## 1
Amino acid sequence: MSTIGDNRAATMGDTAPAIISPMSIQERLADLLAETGKTQTEVARHAKIGRGAISAIVRGRTKHPQPEHLFAIADALGVEPRWLATGRGPRNKDKGLSQDQREWLEMYDQLPPDKRQAARALLDPTGEYHVDDSADTNS
């Protein structure tokens, strides 16, 4: 068993190790808000629930939120509802990608093909990816 910070890894059947968070839902939600820079109001708006529902969790007044609220909040923050509720299982959706990584992928997906090539060339740490300038008809 490996240790990552205060989290411990646990094996669940034949699946990959799952992280178990010793934090409460209150702490997990507060940390997610701080990490993403999102306000309770922004998350509530995205989740289509009242800000009071999120506030009640963050303040510890609600320890077991309604399932529909839990799923909506998890979706708004890009995490798995099971992890948000219990601290068990994978934290992030999309095969463990962070919110920042998902945002980068969303931006990349919106680029036209020629801009995608330029972005790949710019971000390639090896410097081996080159843009095919022969296909550029705008010059």
## 2
Amino acid sequence: MNTADFRRALALGIDRDQINETFWLGRDTQLRGARRRQQVQPARVRKLWATLDVKKANEMLDRSASTRRTRGLSPAFDGKSRLRIGIMTLGASSPVHQIAEMIREQWKKIGIDLTCRSGASLPQAHRRQRAAARRLEQRRQ
């Protein structure tokens, strides 16, 4: 998963036009990654890896050493289960979670299983982490 080709394949598996139309009513532009203010790039470079190309994404994943693809799904590193990428958002109704759900459906076409979970609010998450750390510390004693 640390290879550039793997990350680029994931980027090629995202239909930014669909996301743009759904969440920004077609007002956004397709770009790769985040831009810095001082960074001015030619249009060709800005759109590189930002256009949906399922065929190329599948080819790149097939060549990638981090995935050995069988039955249309990319197995995880143990070679037995499929590759699963998980993210957690702060709420199922948040735009980030909804976009992640859309990407999950898009990545199925390239054999990647994205798991989207909505978590508690940030303060609740911190309280749960501290409570889990205390329980772990108590078990060690």
## 3
Amino acid sequence: MDENGGIHIKNPGRNRIWTRMLKLTGGHGDPEGRTVDMKRRRTAAWILALLSPTIAELLSGSSPPLEFFNPVMFAGLLGMYGAGVLVVRELATSWGKGWASVLVLGVAYAIAEEGLACKSFFDPGWADLGDLATYGRFWSVNWVWTVWLVVYHAVISISLPILISQLLYPEFNRKRLLSERQFKVVFWIFWIDIAVFALAFGTNYLPPAAQYLLAMAAVVGLFAYARRVPDGLVSASHIFPSWKKGRIISPGLKTCATGFLFIFSNFLAASGSFTRCLNPVLTILLLFAIAAGTMLLLRHRLGVRENDLLKAYLAVGLLSFLILLSLILGFAAGVFGMGFVGIAFIAFSFYFVHAVRVRTGSPKNPSPGVSK
């Protein structure tokens, strides 16, 4: 790593791949500093890597405990989700970019996982599709499922773990967690994992070549665009949070509800029977509208400063729908261990908000900041 914290290649002439990576990252970052607690940095990296599969797969019920904790499955999920979220976080940090870049890279991640590895974007026989195998399927692509999972992975699998990690370890927010060598290892672990999953799931369904190649091109194009995307696309429009403090509903509760309703409404739109009377194009537009509306609301309300506690409430709101789902799966549907997973995440949510509140010295019910 160079003096600015960027990726430095000792012999760039011998390794064109990493020379190109250096150009893409711009070689920028921030100094590591000899006084940095490396143990805490490693802990932050592991927490981030574990949060992604635990939230996206275990808490959601996509991989219940018996499946999730199978050593082979766990290694595969950690190699995909854990390595993927670390790559996204490290690239955005080394580029000096913000949430716009993270979200774009999150979309690229979604296509890499669901399009290239699992091929669920194309496979009409994918187990989780239900009637989405036919509803919205066109040109050998499950379009409603594709849009829903792109939103899900960009927000839940990538952005949410990074947000939680930033709030738990704020001292590393503009610093890289991985060294040059560690980044290389994690980068290749991710792509090897994608290749292994692609081969494993290739035995049941082989997608059309044109669609598969376009998915690969989309990943490359999004990767390049993430380096250049304007941060202003998702930047807050006010210096301080602008939620008005109500008599009953606090700004924190409003932010939490925003996160919950975002995931809940997307879930209903993608899988709910009430949308089946609509043309699939309208359902897809509805999914985009929910995402855009939520983004605009958060841009207007969260603010730039004095907003860490509100961010924590947003994270808990995003988790809360999945927590509710895990409790239903565990105690109503009888899926072994899911109820305990939900209870564990309830406890984590209380701890998480408390930790952020103590660190920031924020009141229990945060109110809009006032410039002095």
## 4
Amino acid sequence: MENNTRSKWQVRLAVTVIFLLGFAAGMLTLNVYRRWVRPAGPGRGDDRFEQMSARLQLNSDQKTKVQQVFGDTREQLRALRKDSEPRVAEIRKQTDQRLQQILDKIARAFLPPLSPVPAPVRIVNRPQKYSPIRRLRQ
């Protein structure tokens, strides 16, 4: 009986170790993938600016002025995006309502609802958040 209990614990321990190794391998793989896809990290805009300024042979005064222009442009675009978000949300809501009136229940199940504000970055081939089958049951 003691041998039987011991072997059960060995199996449990082996399964736990295998699970933890798989988890660690998955985390390492994800980190390697992220570095491969985005090698420069969060400061990559600075790297691009430095490459551009070297190619254009800008002096320090020109670099400062160009950075100021880019900063001002970035702020203007952020403000424009913020101001237009409510209008975009309203247009998307109206579109969704109009499509709901036209499509039947089955077709609506396969049409994901429009988000009120578009995501800043779209990821290609991501899994669908809403399953058509789940939406049919609602």
